[in-house]
Amino acid sequence: MSYSIVGEQIQKFRKELGLTQKELGESIGVSSSAVSQWESGGTPDISLLPAIADKLHVTIDALFGREGGEVMDIEKIVGNWSKSLKEGRLNQICRMAFEMLKNGGFPSIDLPNLGYMKTCEIGSDIDSEHMILLPSLICDDEGLSIGVFADDLAFSAIFPEPAAGYDAFFSPTESYREFFQMLSESGALKVVLCLASEKWQFFTPGAVAKRAGIPESRTKEVLELLVKYQMAEPLELESEEGEINAYVLRKQTYLVPFLYFARILLDPEGYYINRNVRTTPLLRGKKK
User: Fold this and answer.
1) Coil, helix or strand for 271?
2) Prediction pTM value
3) 8 Cα distance to chain centroid
4) What are all long-range contacts of 75-78, with beta carbons under 8 Å and residues at least 24 apart?
5) How many whole angstroms separate alpha carbon 263 and alpha carbon 191?
């Protein structure tokens, strides 16, 4: 077999992926001239073949022109894998996210060879009765990831940096201040948690007050605040006593990640992974 076919195949698959010789070379630790030499009839060192195949999304057989080595559709492969899972699908996806982030998701960061945790919490050094959540925080100039990767709690959030910067998509500062002030009002968070603990349905202020253990007059005020900030939706009902409002909590699925992220801010002591090699400011300074 003529080994010049290896260079021909490298060139073919490289162009199909839209990679330059420089981009391919840098990804596997060689110069663009080395890639050029391969594609002109040279042969890469055998030790480089796995890395070349991985970068080109093909098998090593494909580099030698053998059948079954077509370009792999990674998104399709992962999608089919997730469909094949019968139980614990989301936990398995979190495990995959952990492995991808740890082994190349942030190429500028050399992460240690860590495994999945058994438990997501440890006791605080300051207060032994207080448990601290152990998040994994990873950040470089391409973006950031925040997650918890343990058998008893797992979640993953990946934030590639937008071309315009993160803060280009923030709400105005004043709206955040008003929102957090609303949640700090007496009974507000208690009502939100109470409604989220019930199945999705409308509740009268009296029913909410009974469940939350706060006066009905205050419950009505809180519910109207939640309506103002679009966290609750009212429904007018006709009763024997006249018209009354019932309420249902909106966007309640956002409550879980919101409170998890808030806990990470409140538990600053411990991390499972904490790697930040970003060389530029996290926020660019949104122009007024």
Assistant:
1) coil
2) 0.73
3) 39
4) none
5) 19
